[in-house]
Amino acid sequence: NASPGNEITAQTDFTQPFGEKQTLEAGLKSIWRRNSSVADVDTFFTALAPDFARSPRRATNFDYDQNVQAAYATYAFSLSKKLSGSLGGRVERTTLTARFRTTDTGFGRSYTTPLPNGNAQYSFSDATSLRLAYSRRITRPNIYYLNPYVDRSDPSYLAYGNPNLDPELTDSYELSYNTGGKIASLNAALAVQRTGNAIEQVRLATDRPGLTAQTFANVAANTFYMLTTYGSVKPTAKWDISGGPNLRYVVRRSPALNAERRGWQVDMVFNTSYKLTKTLTLQGNLYTNTPEPAIQGTGSSNLYYEFGAKKSFLNEKLDLSLNLSNPFNNTWTYRGTVNTPYFSEQGGYVSYQRAIRVYLAYAYGKAEGGRQRKSIRNDDVKGGGGKQGGR
Question: For residue 230, how many other CB atoms are within 10 A of its CB?
Answer without folding.
Answer: 16
